[in-house]
Automatic annotation (TrEMBL):
It comes from Strigops habroptila. Residues 1-25 form the signal peptide. Coiled coil: none annotated. Its main location: membrane. Gene3D superfamilies: Tie2 ligand-binding domain superfamily. This is Multiple EGF like domains 10. It comes from the Eukaryota. It holds the Pfam family EGF_PEAR1L. One of its GO terms (cellular component) is plasma membrane.
């Protein structure tokens, strides 16, 4: 049997399929590319033995036919017919969990990676500061980094940066982990404020309040300040005059309150209130 492949615009069918397979398929050497055998059909012209009745003559005793007799026999000759032939070829395709994009096989994630990218089938790589299966959950206060996989090392109530893990110290603390108190003589945010304490008093590293040594005083309660200003200056002091509304009030705060209430009209009063912390000698007890 002889096969004759039909042509398509002058190109043999088998060559046409070969050309399509090589130009439209992925490269098996590329990552995430798999292959399988697929079947396809082509139209062919095939030869086959076609039977026919062959007449031949033999010698015989038939006088009327001049001693020739007619005989029949089945013979075969080559004929041609159209048919279909199943053929097989190796086809490239993206491996399971991947899809083709711009002639490459890229991973597929069923859920969109909100703050990250898909790096493997249904696997997201989150940006720093985000976690969860699809990178949609912000890191809590104790974790940072990609997938919130790193634990914060911040101390003393410091805030942890969810992206870098850097610590933002609370008032009164410093250091990489905010594990150190402000040096003596400084207090507040980033320890940038200088204490006003005198006569060996110690300064609170958070508020700047002075702890006076024995024999000195300087801190007044709000009620006392308000009372003194009303009696001495004849002024009613609103609580908005000071950021401190309860607890101890320093002499420095009293001076600021007096200046705000008097609007600078009484310089002597301002000088009188201009005492710093622990600068008043406590009267000796009798």
């Amino acid at each position: 049997m002889v096969l004759h492949l039909n042509s398509f615009f002058g190109i043999p069918v088998i060559l046409l399929y070969h050309w399509m397979g090589t130009t439209l398929s992925l490269n098996l050497e590329d990552p995430n590319v798999c292959s399988h055998w697929e079947s396809y059909s082509v139209t062919v012209q095939e030869s086959y033995p076609h039977p026919f009745d062959q007449i031949y003559y033999t010698s015989c005793t038939d006088i009327l036919n001049w001693f020739k007799c007619t005989r029949h026999r089945i013979s075969y000759r080559t004929a041609y017919r159209h048919g279909e032939k199943t053929m097989y070829r190796r086809k490239s395709q993206c491996c399971p969990g991947f899809y083709e994009s711009r002639e490459m096989c890229v991973p597929h994630c069923a859920d969109k990676c909100v703050h990250g990218r898909c790096i493997a089938p249904n696997t997201c790589q989150c940006e720093p500061g985000w976690g969860g299966p699809n990178c949609s959950s912000a890191c809590d206060s104790d974790h940072w980094g990609p997938h919130c996989s790193s634990r914060c090392q911040c101390k003393n109530g410091a805030l942890c940066n969810p992206i870098t893990g850097a610590c933002h110290c609370a008032s009164g603390f410093k250091g990489w982990r905010c594990e150190e108190r402000c040096d003596q003589g400084t207090y507040g945010n980033d320890c940038h404020q200088r204490c006003q304490c005198q006569n060996g008093a110690t300064c609170d590293h958070v508020t700047g309040e002075c702890r006076c040594p024995p024999g000195y005083t300087g801190a007044l309660a709000w009620s006392v300040v308000s009372l003194v200003l009303r009696v001495v200056m004849g002024k009613t002091v609103p609580r908005s005059a000071s950021a401190t509304t309860e607890g101890p009030v320093t002499w420095l705060q009293v001076n600021a309150i007096a200046a705000r209430v008097t609007q600078g009209n009484d310089a002597r009063m301002s000088v009188q209130w201009g005492l710093t912390e622990c600068s008043v000698l406590r009267p000796a007890s009798v």
